[in-house]
Design brief:
The structure is a single chain. This protein is an alpha/beta fold. The chain contains eight helices and six strands; from the N terminus they run ααβαβααββαβαβα. It is 33% helix and 11% strand. Strands 3-2-5-6 form a four-stranded parallel β-sheet. A two-stranded antiparallel ribbon has the order 1-4. Helix 7 links the parallel strand 5 and strand 6. The radius of gyration is 17 Å and the shape is globular.
């Protein structure tokens, strides 16, 4: 596992990499590779969310659960896929909601959400790796301890972050967030199983921009250049 965190994240997370759970997680990933298992995303992309959205720049957090487990999909950003890859169902529904929520939004040709990350949207999965073709295979191996700590540090050390929590799993993380300092936007998950029962029409993107506008901060340009 390649651990090359962006410098502002390293300042607040450095001690996590010395803890026993992280050492066990590193060994677990080494052992998985020794067993010739393919792990997504590739090593250099595991911490991509942190690379593209420095700690000092975080304004919005979109929480996901698990990286995509198909070939060439995951690249370290929740809900995002690499250029040239077909949109997974949840991402397709995210774009459908954007069309109705944000005036002038155009569905992009690619599902790479890096443009959002570069504007301060931390696209954080709870688990940062997965075995190819085996959804959830790296859950409860230590990643959740790390990413929960990320959420707690953001909550403790920053103010007025907008946390977008889609679905039950993400909403359980609300207990880690100081709601007196931050903003929570909740709805059903964009998965086809729940999108029609509370995700479509929830307007998370315009709500985010409304909050940013009230705070006197630049709004997110949700259109993608990909």
């Amino acid at each position: 596992m390649s651990v090359k965190l962006e410098s502002s994240w390293l300042k607040v997370l450095n001690q996590e990499f010395e803890k026993d759970y992280m050492k066990s997680l590193k060994q677990f990933l080494v052992d998985e590779k020794k067993d010739d298992k393919t792990i997504y995303p590739k090593g250099n992309d595991i911490f991509n969310a942190f690379t593209l959205t420095p700690f000092d720049k975080v304004r919005v957090v979109i929480l996901g659960q698990d990286p995509y487990h198909g070939a060439n999909q995951a690249h370290g950003l929740s809900f995002s896929v690499q250029k040239g890859i077909r949109f997974p169902p949840s991402l397709k529904n995210i774009f459908k909601e954007l069309v109705t929520d944000i005036e002038g939004f155009i569905i992009p040709k690619n599902g790479d959400l890096s443009d959002w990350a570069k504007q301060g949207v931390l696209m954080l999965n709870s688990s940062l790796t997965v075995i190819a073709g085996d959804a959830g295979s790296h859950q409860d191996k230590g990643w959740e301890i790390f990413t929960d700590e990320v959420i707690k540090i953001l909550s403790d050390k920053k103010e007025n972050i907008i946390f977008i929590l889609w679905g039950k799993f993400a909403q359980e993380k609300e207990e880690l967030i100081d709601i007196n300092k931050h903003h929570i936007i909740k709805s059903k998950h964009p998965s086809p199983f729940s999108a029609y029962s509370g995700f479509f029409g929830s307007k998370p993107f315009s709500k985010t921009n409304d909050i940013l506008k009230k705070l006197g901060k630049p709004e997110i340009d949700w259109n993608l250049s990909t």
